Amino acid sequence: MEKLSKAAIFAIVALVIVLIVIFKSSVVIEAGQAGVLFKPFGEGVEKDATYGEGFHIIAPWNDMIIFPVRQLSKSDKMRVLSVNGLEVTVDATVWYQPEYDRLPYLYQEKGINYEDNILEPAISAAARSVVGRYTPEQLYSSKRDVIQSEILEEARKELESQYVQVNRVLVKDVTLPPKIKEAIERKLKQEQEALEYEFRLTKASKEAERQKIDAEGKAVANQILSASLTDKILTEKGIEATLKLAESPNSKVIVVGGGENGGLPIILGNQ
């Protein structure tokens, strides 16, 4: 009985050890994640392999460091200076992800908190570099799309050898000092009013020119018509009109006038 008890205790201890080994040796990497294997009794970080999603068995003394590798986003409000030294606040969001195949190098050189160590400083440096090229008026009005593209380009340059891929940068807002913003809005309003006034003047000038051309055309037409209306033509037209009127049932008497050319007929009669 005593031997059975010792055997049972030994079996239980062995089972516990096996369970611990299995527990320590099994790793499940979830969807959108990847792992880097660290061997404390070997070469340290295993640089030749990035472990993908699924179930993995490793030696119980090794560690699997798991990173999210799907696209991530980070938002920040950065205070930067414009080209003339005025402080502006840029509210931006960056979409990024670690480079899958180089994940072991990212862990070894930058650590698990690589966002704080390299990503944020790179985005901040890119924003300072880009915003420093523009005036507050440009930042406030029409340069936001250009700023986004340039910050993205600068950030990629900063991170191209840092094992992090930047996919997109969105500038949600550019906040200027209140007095500068008010001055810019007044200036933009005045420019808009000036453009509207210039448009009205141009429209009025074009209308006056159109009326002038129309009047000149009518004058020329009248001159041509007057030159073509001889006495003979007028008499002929008058006779044609008289004949048409004579055909009317209300016409009673036709009097033919005298004169050198005979004059035009006159019709007398009741309605």
Quick structural gist:
The protein has three domains: 2-68, no CATH class; 72-176, 2-Layer Sandwich (Tetrahydropterin Synthase, Chain A), CATH 3.30.479.30; 231-268, no CATH class. 51% of the residues lie in helices and 23% in strands. It contains seven helices and ten strands.
Layout of SSEs?
Layout: H1 2-25, E1 26-29, E2 33-39, E3 44-45, E4 54-57, E5 63-68, E6 72-81, E7 87-98, H2 103-110, H3 114-131, H4 136-140, H5 144-159, E8 164-175, H6 178-228, H7 231-246, E9 253-255, E10 266-268
Antiparallel strand pairs: 1-4, 2-3, 2-5, 6-7, 7-8, 9-10
What brief labels describe this structure?
elongated; Tetrahydropterin Synthase, Chain A; 3-stranded antiparallel sheet; alpha+beta; 7 helices; 10 strands; single chain; 271 residues
Please provide a written account of the structure.
- The protein is of the alpha+beta class.
- The chain has 7 helices and 10 strands.
- It folds into 3 domains: 2-68, no CATH class; 72-176, Band 7 domain (Tetrahydropterin Synthase, Chain A); 231-268, no CATH class.
- The chain has helices at residues 2-25, 103-110, 114-131, 136-140, 144-159, 178-228, 231-246; strands spanning 26-29, 33-39, 44-45, 54-57, 63-68, 72-81, 87-98, 164-175, 253-255, 266-268.
- A 3-stranded antiparallel beta sheet has the order 3-2-5. Strands 6-7-8 form a 3-stranded antiparallel beta sheet.
- Helix 3 (114-131) crosses helix 5 (144-159).
- The model has no long low-confidence stretch (mean pLDDT 78).
- Residues 24-188 form the Band domain.
- One of its GO terms (cellular component) is membrane.
